[in-house]
Amino acid sequence: MACLPYGAFVQFSLRGRGRHRLILFAWVADDQPVGERTMHRCFAVLLYLALGLPAQAAIKGCISDVLLPPFGFFEQGSVKQEVVGLGVDVLQAILRREGQPPAEISVLPWRRCLRLVEAGALDIVLNVPTAQINPKPYFITEPYYAVHSIYFYSSKLHPTGIRLGNLEDLKRYQVCGLFGYSFEGYGIDSNTVDTGSKDYASLIRKLHAGRCDLFIDKREIVAGMYLLDPKLQAQIIDTVLVSQPLPEDSPMQFHFAVGRRSPGGEALRKQLDVGIIEMTQRGEIAKMMARYLR
């Protein structure tokens, strides 16, 4: 057996399911007889092996099945159908730095995802928008990215443009949007919005046909949709279709939500907070996003 050199100070670091660490130390003194040194060296190795303690279990998380590229989506052409995206990248990078195994991420209906993390069956929810869930059952992390609202209109129908001075001005126009979207955050009753479109191509056709004046979305999410539909880019980057920043916009931020019933949940939240702050300061998250939006 190849054992430890004399004069060695050895630290074995093992982590259990709850992210708790067990550390074993072994010291082999220089002045021990050769046989005794060998015995101690081998004993330290055998102790490590004989304990049979499990390696740290992977954190288990979930993400909404209403996928939002570039934050979470299935990569086109991928045989494995594994979810990828900025939220996944940030989480895995922070875990990797601590020598932890990659998180296992399931794609689930949003409400089910929240319930399972709340119950402690899963550890973490990815891509949680600010203030859009009840925070009581979760430890909410620092935001890792912010998205910004823009509005689109057809210059064919509005050749002089649509200029919005504030959100109240939206009420002067017929707004349309994607199916399932809510617009109360923009000061609009969602019941007054035409949300019959299930994809951007349909929404753009509706604009050019004059069935509505404008639609609102998030700049980064629209750009991310190119990853799923390359043809969409030609429709969005069009001299007839014009986009402008939405006034009085409060950027929506994305967080992780760690379940309070998850073993070591508060420690995981603190670990993620430190990682998010450090990665943001070093510009690493911006570089990750640039790879998706190039």
From TrEMBL:
Domain of life the protein comes from: Bacteria
Keyword vocabulary terms for this entry: Signal
Presence of keyword Signal: yes
Domain annotation Solute-binding protein family 3/N-terminal: ranges: 68-293
Designated name of the protein: ABC transporter substrate-binding protein
Organism: Chitinimonas arctica
Record carries keyword Signal: yes
